[in-house]
């Protein structure tokens, strides 16, 4: 079973508390989302392979290590996932970005894909799926399945908040996927919201409520 990383760095927890606070406005919420995404991206890419190159410093010849051209794609799940993309692109500006949209079928309550626009070479890329709120885990698991169907082999999942229940669903369906979450909250309410959580992440990022 791949690991779950709870990223309880003080900077992340501080910014997350700001996001949880109902008094926090759209601007600050967006900024905190971007900053946490950047901090989490730093950790989620810790295993990027390096290669050695030769350079000249002002003083001498040196061997230096640089990232070895690994092909990466970020795939935010619409719409809240978009809030994390800018922070991640600041660290890895050459990453390609795909988008996946899922809605919940009212009869089956299962997530159904309604939009997919992915890099043409997605199967050759390491993909980080971005789903800020892993509540039931249904959307994240479905998004990962959708990528695997398109041939993607290496997938990580990044979220802000999750529930153990949601993480269990993802891990059961996708034991190979490493998960990065800033916190695991204790409850899921009857409307599928994470409690205490931070509310509807999409509404708070885009100011739609
Ligand atoms: N999606 C959200 O935006 N918030 C939740 O609490 C659960 C799912």
Automatic annotation (TrEMBL):
InterPro entries, sorted: PRTase-like, PRTase_dom, Upp_B, UPRT, UPRTase/APRTase
MF terms in GO: GTP binding; magnesium ion binding; uracil phosphoribosyltransferase activity
Pathway field: Pyrimidine metabolism; UMP biosynthesis via salvage pathway; UMP from uracil: step 1/1
Catalytic activity: UMP + diphosphate = 5-phospho-alpha-D-ribose 1-diphosphate + uracil
SUPFAM superfamilies according to UniProt: PRTase-like (SSF53271)
Enzyme class: transferase
Binding sites annotated in the UniProt record for 5-phospho-alpha-D-ribose 1-diphosphate: 79, 104, 131-139, 200
GO BP field: UMP salvage; uracil salvage
Domain of life: Bacteria
Binding residue positions for uracil: 194, 199-201
GO cellular component, one term: cytoplasm
The keyword GTP-binding appears for this protein: yes
Ranges for domain Phosphoribosyltransferase: 6-208
EC number(s) recorded for this UniProt protein: 2.4.2.9
Required cofactor names: Mg(2+)
Cofactor note: Binds 1 Mg(2+) ion per subunit. The magnesium is bound as Mg-PRPP.
Keyword presence, Disulfide bond: no
Keywords, alphabetical: Allosteric enzyme, Glycosyltransferase, GTP-binding, Magnesium, Nucleotide-binding, Transferase
Activity regulation remarks: Allosterically activated by GTP.
Function: Catalyzes the conversion of uracil and 5-phospho-alpha-D-ribose 1-diphosphate (PRPP) to UMP and diphosphate.
Family assignment from sequence similarity: Belongs to the UPRTase family.
Designated name of the protein: Uracil phosphoribosyltransferase
Protein species of origin: Butyricicoccus pullicaecorum 1.2
Species classification: Bacteria, Bacillati, Bacillota, Clostridia, Eubacteriales
Chain's gene name: upp
């Amino acid at each position: 079973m791949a690991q779950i990383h709870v990223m309880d760095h003080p900077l992340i927890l501080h910014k997350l508390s700001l996001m949880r606070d109902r008094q926090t406005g759209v601007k600050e919420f967006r900024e905190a989302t971007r900053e946490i995404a950047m901090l989490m991206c730093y950790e989620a890419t810790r295993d990027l392979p390096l290669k050695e190159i030769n350079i000249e410093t002002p003083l001498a010849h040196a061997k230096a290590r640089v990232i070895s051209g690994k092909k990466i794609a970020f795939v935010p799940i619409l719409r809240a996932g978009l809030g994390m993309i800018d922070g991640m692109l600041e660290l890895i500006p050459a990453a390609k970005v795909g988008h996946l949209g899922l809605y919940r079928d009212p009869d089956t309550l299962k997530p159904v894909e309604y939009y997919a626009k992915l890099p043409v070479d997605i199967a050759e890329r390491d993909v980080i799926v971005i789903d800020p709120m892993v509540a039931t885990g249904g959307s994240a698991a479905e998004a990962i399945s959708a990528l695997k169907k398109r041939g993607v082999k290496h997938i990580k999942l990044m979220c802000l908040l999750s529930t153990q229940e949601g993480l269990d669903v993802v891990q059961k369906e996708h034991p190979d996927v490493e998960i990065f979450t800033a916190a695991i909250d204790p409850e899921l309410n009857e409307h599928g919201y994470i409690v205490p959580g931070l509310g509807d992440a999409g509404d708070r990022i885009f100011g739609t409520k």
